[in-house]
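I have been asked to look over a protein record a colleague put together. The record follows directly below this note.
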Amino acid sequence: MKKIRFNSPVVLSFALISGIVLIANYLTAGWSNTQFFMCSKGSWSDPLTYLRLFTHVLGHADWNHYSGNMILFLLVGPLLEEKYGSLNLFEIIIAVAFVTGIVHVFLPQNTGLLGASGIVFAFILLASITGEGKGIPLTLLIAAAFYISQQIYEGIIVRDNISQLTHIIGGSIGAFFGLFFSGSKK
């Protein structure tokens, strides 16, 4: 039997920490998510407001929410971490967390934001750019068209407590980094 290896430290650590946060959420009947892992309007004098701008991506409402995000995260993430490196992938995660957190805080509604779906969509669009060719990949354009049109439709028509704006922002950040990385190789 071959030895199991820790092949993707950022992706595996993120999934593990998110799993621990989910267990804590269950054990505290939602208190830990509300206090530390849910981004919402709050006082800027509260230090936890700043923390939650980054940690909201670790929290998930329940097992279905967590597993839905982690399945895609664990499928796409290791390939991206191998291609772009752990530090670059960590920077993408931080960028998505911060930008989606800031945008959410300044939106007019007063709802909570939690979950890694913005990062998952960043990874999906980043993966569609990955390749050695020159120019903008057709796969990126097709994936972005499907993805953005679906998110806009669901944002207008469907009322499901899912932040389609977070998905669009995450996907945009993933596409930006992908184009940046592909341009920096030249």
